[in-house]
Amino acid sequence: MWIKDAFCIAHRLVEEMRPHCERVEIGGSIRRGCQEVKDIEIIVVPRRQPGEVIDLFGTTEEVNLLHSWALDAEARKELRWIKPNTSEVIPWPTKPEGKYWRGLVRETVKLDLFIARPDNFGLIYLIRTGHRDFSAAVLGHAKRNTRYQTESSYFDEHEIKNRGDAEGYLVEKARWGRRVETREESDVFELLELEFVEPRARVGYESLKMKRVAAPVVATAL
Q1: pLDDT single digits (tens) 19-78
Q2: How far is CA 206 from the centre of its chain?
Q3: How many CB atoms lie within 10 A of CB 33?
Q4: Of 53, 176, 196, 212, which sits 20 to 30 A from 74 (CA to CA)?
Q5: How far is CA 99 from CA 15, 49, 163, 168, in A?
Q6: Which class does domain 121-207 fall in?
Q7: Contact 114/100 with Cβ under 8 angstroms?
């Protein structure tokens, strides 16, 4: 599918989802400006609100408002939710707590919907913009050359997984896996001491550029 057609479909979906989301952005090959697009990838932070009380302590269930949109869109036959991680088209229910929903828009275009939290949106946005080789290079660099790594259940440097049950955070290696906030893509590049790379230039390991560290000023005796 040509990028112009893919962008029109993605933009319409984004505008439909926007009232139900804190953030929603187009990623993948559309964001990278590729002329041919295979799937549409969108990254979202759903709006959430307290629901019913679920225990004697007054704990309330968190309601994912985007999930209501997902059910409504399917009822209107705008899209059909299908099983992730398979080339077969198998009907599959979306879960409010899920982190990855896969859909089929008007029976023709596949949609990958990645669900983030406000404090890890930057990492998810970067990884799901791709290119796959670039994302793997970033994760490999983090693991080998920095004090951070990604949660192993979600990403590793050899495979960018589409997991529906993992959060996806950068964690500190030396602090028992303490999660680190990455609200923006720039936070990820900064933490990993990398120069920001424009989406169109994200190809592979060769796209990574280490930040230049200014040489210390040495005082000279008069």
Answers
A1: 999 999 999 999 999 999 999 999 999 999 876 666 666 566 789 999 999 999 998 888
A2: 22
A3: 11
A4: 53
A5: 20, 17, 7, 9
A6: alpha beta
A7: yes
The reported pTM is 0.87
Mean pLDDT along residues 155-177: 67
Q: Which of the following CATH numbers is that of domain 3-115: 3.40.640.10, 3.30.460.10, 2.10.260.10, 3.20.20.100?
A: 3.30.460.10
Residue 82: phi and psi, rounded to 5, are -130, 165
Q: What is the DSSP string of 198-214?
A: -GGG--SGGG--BPPPP
Q: What percent of the chain stands above pLDDT 70? A: 84
| pLDDT one-digit tens code per residue, 88-146 | 999 999 999 999 999 999 888 999 999 999 999 999 999 999 999 999 999 999 999 99
Residues ≥6 apart with Cβ < 8 Å to 54: 60, 61
CA distance 111 to 72: 16
Q: Which residue has the higher pLDDT, 85 or 190?
A: 190
The type of residue at 216 is P
